[in-house]
Amino acid sequence: MNIAVEKVTSSKINEVDFDNLAFGSVFSDHMLECTYKNGAWETPKIVPYQPITLDPSSKIFHYGQSIFEGMKAYKDKDGGVWLFRPLENQKRLNISAKRMAIPELPEEYFMEGLTSLLQVDKNWIPENDGSSLYIRPFMFASGNGFHASPADEYKFIIATAPSGAYFSGKVRVLIEEKYSRSANGGVGFAKAGGNYAGQFYPTQLAKAKGYQQVIWTDDNTHEYIEEAGAMNIFVRINDTLITGPTSDRILDGITRKSILDIAADEGIKAEVRKISVAEVVAAAKSGELKEMFGAGTAAVVSPISGFGHQGTDYDLPELENSYAMQLKKRITDIQYNRAEDKFGWRYRVI
Ligand SMILES: *Cc1c(COP(=O)(O)O)cnc(C)c1O
User: Fold this and answer.
1) For the domain bounded by 171-335, which CATH number is listed?
2) In this structure, what DSSP letter does residue 341 have?
3) Does the C-beta of 254 come closer than 6 Å to ligand 1?
4) Which atom of ligand 1 is least distant from the CA of 298?
5) From start to end of 196-256, where are the E strands?
6) Which regions of the chain are under pLDDT 50?
7) What general EC class does the enzyme of this chain belong to (predicted)?
8) What is the pLDDT of residue 128?
9) Closest-lying ligand 1 atom to the alpha carbon of residue 70
């Protein structure tokens, strides 16, 4: 594929303080852009990072056809550049696209487009320990008209942002029993922008009560815990790690499935089954609840220090050797090319 590259006249890279990077707020020099028009995706091109001009009637504004992915590029100590299971993101983007009636993108447009962009902006991939280049592929309806129907034009864009080590500290969470993130037959399994919009208000309410995040429960009975904010959730009861099964409502996270494979490899007993709120509360009361953590690309694991449920707060113990940190180390050692990759998850870009 012949991807045209229009380079910036002068790079912004010298203005960036790579030792103090907030998450996702400084953007690299270039972006990949690809347009769907007249029934087909055009060849992607690389252009300077820039604003997008859209007609006020663009369907993205009114009907929310918008999906995204989140991934990272990692630089090893020899300057090698790696992705982690990128084809999983590519496949999931198309799963999300299909559900939102957005045309699917050919695999090579995603993979060749992404690797070309990383080659052009390779100097933006941070080298500091724990830093990475956060990659945000997204797709939205750019076609016009107030008619409530799928658009006839779309954009696929990949923008990237150098990011420092992501550690927010342990979080206190609230088990949510009124609002739902997703429902059977809905779009919870898709990385659709609207799923996030719908989470913000209940999360604001939880924050006002002193929690940092919401634990979503199933929409029907609110008896089963399903996700931690925008991350998959893991619970450790005694020595068993448990996570819920993917479904219409639970997103098929790449970190989640990598954790399950690594747990099996490390001899950690893991179960994929429904986790009831009652079981978690009982285990917290008896002291058998050892850990809870979210799992997702940005933080890999996000440990939970305690949770609120129906007006009562429960604290989790401080563990010396948590599964969360053991699993995070195994995954990040693979991502940064510091350890053997027996699963074949690393993907070399440079
Ligand atoms: C992206 C996301 C995850 C985590 O997926 P990863 O592939 O591990 O980054 C989990 N839950 C939701 C709702 C998400 O949007």
Assistant:
1) 3.20.10.10
2) -
3) yes
4) 9
5) 213-217, 224-228, 231-237, 240-243
6) none
7) transferase
8) 87
9) 9
Residue 166 confidence (pLDDT): 76
Which residue's alpha carbon is at the smallest distance from atom 10 of ligand 1? 231
Nearest CA to ligand 1 atom 5: 253
Radius of gyration of the chain (CA): 21
Q: Ligand 1, residues 217, 251, 256, 331: which to mutate, most atoms within 8 A of Cβ?
A: 251
Tell me, what's the pLDDT at 129?
A: 82
Q: Given this model, what pLDDT does residue 169 score?
A: 85
Residue 135 bridge partners (DSSP): 71, 160
Among the listed residues 227, 230, 246, the one whose alpha carbon sits nearest the alpha carbon of residue 95: 246
Q: Where are the domains of the chain?
A: 4-163, 171-335
Alpha-carbon dihedral sign for residues 7, 11, 17, 22: negative
- The predicted structure's pLDDT at residue 10: 97
Q: Is the CB of 296 under 6 A from ligand 1?
A: yes
Is 4-163's fold the same as 171-335's? no
Tokens of 326: 């053991």
Does the Cβ of 85 fall within 6 Å of ligand 1?
Answer: no
Centroid of ligand 1 to alpha carbon of 93 (angstroms): 12
Q: Top-level CATH class of 4-163? A: alpha beta
Closest Cα to residue 42, out of 30, 31, 33, 51? 33
Closest CA to 347 of 71, 2, 54, 23: 71
CA–CA distance, 171 with 307 (Å, rounded to integer):
9
The CA–CA distances, whole Å, from 129 to 76, 165, 282, 333 equal 9, 7, 39, 11
